[in-house]
């Protein structure tokens, strides 16, 4: 804690201020209040942004010799402060116990850990959604058994748009069920202090205001997968690629929240993937922060995925 040293003049000023507090004018009080608000606004402008990383095949990654430390080291070198790590093997959650030590290692490096759960069908009520909710309950139980090194959140990758009946521009027939699944997961997670984040495609941002409100009010956080804007061999310069990232990210954020004034809307992380930029990916991620930090709906960036880094290192 910083030491505060008061001079004799400062103490005298404080004494007089206290003595005369009752006689302060309304104008002076307003000035004090405005200064306080300005300080609060400045602090808000310095909010910490999320810098995330998808880690697929989580059990295999962590079981590899030195796997946990390599992941920790990569997070430190790449400025990652949260990871979304898949926790099941072909739907089997019995290996959750092996995550306790890696979570502790990442936490000691100030990296949050979200349990990544994926499905193509979990939006549908019945056995598919029940299976997802059982997996969430398994994470909740793990945290109850490991109060000091549990998961920080649930990260959902539910992709009903992959099914044939849901393909096609403007086809959002699956949205009500998807939102219902999100709310069911939130209902299990939030009471035990787990955050919930969900990967979404830009198709979901093209709905009408009512559809976007339904989506964005269902969870506190979303991650937009902003893929295939560029490719390594498209002939564009680094600056041109960065400008495309800057423009598209602003457009998608504007599209998502256009006409919505509610205060309970989820914030947005924007994800980019390695195959689109290769070694230029860190520059593109920096561009996202530079372009959108002042947007209150923007929460940070995420990179897809750690597997690409492991392949490059072989």
Number of helices: 12
One letter per element, helices H and strands E, the order comes to HHEHHEHEHEHEHEHEHHEH
The Rg value, from CA coordinates, equals 23 Å
- So what's the overall shape? globular
* CATH fold annotation: TIM Barrel
Mean pLDDT: 89
**What percent of residues are in strands?**
15-25%
Helix/strand class: alpha/beta
Strand order of the largest sheet: 1-2-3-4-5-6-7-8
Concise synopsis of the structure shown:
The protein is α/β, with parallel strands linked by helices. It is 46% helix and 16% strand.
Model description:
The structure is a single chain. With 314 residues, the chain is α/β, with parallel strands linked by helices. The chain has a single domain, classed as Glycosidases (TIM Barrel), CATH 3.20.20.80. The protein has helices at residues 8-19, 26-45, 58-63, 67-78, 100-108, 127-145, 175-189, 209-216, 238-257, 274-277, 281-292, 306-312, and strands at 50-55, 82-86, 112-119, 153-158, 195-200, 221-225, 267-273, 298-304. It has an 8-stranded parallel beta barrel with strand order 1-2-3-4-5-6-7-8, surrounded by 5 helices. The protein is globular. The relative contact order is 0.11. Mean pLDDT is 89; it is low at 1-19 and 21-45.
